[in-house]
């Protein structure tokens, strides 16, 4: 579609371009705008239908939004902001540089500005920070007929009308009615008769990750957010919950590969910023390699006497690292999805011990046989076999215990992933290796 | 809540237990049932409200479902199955052992059985396999008033009434109307006047992962599924899309830690099955360690002359592995989210080369200085510094190129993660290390 847009732009065929844009989906148009040059973006944006422009604007990348805010007139900005949902407007403000923030706020209505400022007060990872203050709420004694009339009148400016929240006079949340219930009820029925009273809600300070998990568990389309006095203040909708889920997943992948998590996309983040995210952990992990190096030095006699031992260092280190990262990945994920709790530590350990015995046993036998056939040296085969078995036991144990330990110390288990485990297992497995060699090979 | 249920069960206070169950959320009850003993499960299940039982049943773990199917009478099974949505019934059938499948199908109505069998024909990872055939569809010339009447009559048995699909006489999909549009329109308006005509739909054979991505992009609540002749055959709802997203993520985590992906939860999967998922890759990766071992042996002279060289093997291997897994994780994720395509290979490589120069440079300087201060040996410091620099370059290059290569060969890039990269980088970095040492240290 981008090619088509550029072609029409070059031909200055604005009429057909306008038609193309009016038929396309908002998300697709936003994606195209992100790919255009800065000056083309403004031209295309001005051709959009007025009532779709705000929605498309909200879906664009922060960079594109910034470009447009710089280019558009005050009137145009005012028109977009007035049609944007509060939560999208807050996201925009969060990403813009300070001078453009002022520009956006100056072109917002008094009420919008107040609402935006209110939302910006919530802590970064809280339910409050991802909620919208635009929702449908009705009072208990409203009838179905009145409800329809009210929704018809106000409905278009609400982000979701699929769930209607029922409050009492003091704005305390007392029930929910789904659009489905509303459609199926008789016109004179009161909300209090059809509402579900056991409402599941979250506090504004609840962690946004926990909120996202609730969507997965309960299959909700929206969750109401209440303040500390259980007064309804907003809702979190499922599209924002999905965004939180994918963000958290990306962050876990990054942490588990020894990187500082980043909110930027890979291709958009600068080389220097990526360097900064990666170098810290590399230096930290390198420190522990120094310990491993020291350990090897202290066994200099062993490999001076039997030089072939050195050639098994990579295999023992890699196998230990791989065994450990398998266990740590499983446990980190199980902790993230609440399948495993810190109190399950012994159950998990016992499970990994049994897996380690099977895995270690197999590796020991396969390699023992291979080495005996290759070198015709039984003691070497036994040394490597025993080392592999104990390395597997150790790696799987550290792999499952360290993430749980991290969690119980209120640290993020994701940092106890593959790179950390590998570096720790290395040192220990080499100690095992050289000691078994010294013991069995008469060095 | 489980404790409370067990307490009430032991006191045989069924009245209060019934009250507790009637007030709780379905998802919470399902979770509690999963935690109870087999015989308690049936007791509690029989106390549930009839109209909630099927929904709760659909949310339980496969094990619990199996236990209950074994215990319940034919009549009870028939009652549950008749109230279950088709897609949930298909999921149930998928998980049950053959003898229980027959029992469930024998207790289903003729139409339900036919619908289930129809659904089971779709390929495992296709849109068809996760869709439901229960949706609201209306014809073009239906008026808003008629629409409301029809929904009131049939609405309760439809999984979602929030989006209504508009078809022509031949069941071709021609438009969609949201419940919102319906609520806001005048009673005599025809569907053809308010429907959105540019409907985004998917084919039954579309990969379910691609379908899930569309939910993220377009913020839909449901996507219509059409057959090869674009006739409407079902819809995929957002709750199923979220399940697909989390499943795919879990699988990626597993693949990236060198494990065969598994659909079972960590705590529920048997030790032997976990062993099987883990051992294959460990053995494959071990093969390549043999190569690395061979390489070391061929440089025996080098470390016989300068034994201290051996003590740097772990640091060089670990740093190479960590550098590589950072790059591969970023690229694998970017490929998974379609942010990077195979044709971007040169752009990505150039980016990683620049990051590698910064990272490698920093590591080289920090370590060079550290080694010089510790050993007062300038040539050793230079050898390690240069080796680290080139190892970083090599690791980042392999880390970004191999996942893209895998993708262009139609293999899953996730397998080119940390363990695979680490093992490959090891061999190459040791060749670099010993050659630079031989060159600069006059061995």
Structure keywords:
homodimer; 443 residues; mainly alpha; MgtE N-terminal fold; CBS-domain; Tetracycline Repressor, domain 2; 3 domains; three-stranded mixed β-sheet; 22 helices; 6 strands; 6% strand
Largest interface in this structure = A-B, 108 and 108 residues
Order of helices and strands of chain A: HHHHHHHHHHHEHEEHHEHEEHHHHHHH
Low-confidence runs of chain A = none
CATH fold group of the largest domain in chain A: Tetracycline Repressor, domain 2
Oligomer: homodimer
Shape of chain A: elongated
Strand content of chain A: 5-15%
**What characterizes the major β-sheet of chain A?**
3 strands, mixed
Distance between the termini of chain A: 72 Å
Record field, number of beta strands of chain A: 6
Radius of gyration of chain A: 30 Å
CATH superfamily of the largest domain in chain A: SLC41 divalent cation transporters, integral membrane domain
**Strand line-up across the major sheet of chain A:** 1-2-3
* Domain module tally of chain A: 3
Percent of residues in helices of chain A comes to: 55-70%
Number of helices of chain A: 22
- Average the pLDDT over all residues of chain A and give the rounded result: 86
Would you give an account of this structure?
- The structure is a homodimer of 443-residue chains.
- Chain A is mostly helical.
- Chain A has 3 domains: 2-121, MgtE N-terminal domain-like (MgtE N-terminal fold, Alpha Horseshoe), CATH 1.25.60.10; 136-236, Roll (CBS-domain); 271-440, Tetracycline Repressor, domain 2.
- In chain A, 67% of the residues lie in helices and 6% in strands.
- The first copy, chain A, is elongated, with a radius of gyration of 30 Å.
- Chains A and B meet through helix 12, helix 13, helix 15, helix 16 and helix 17 of A and helix 12, helix 13, helix 15, helix 16 and helix 17 of B.
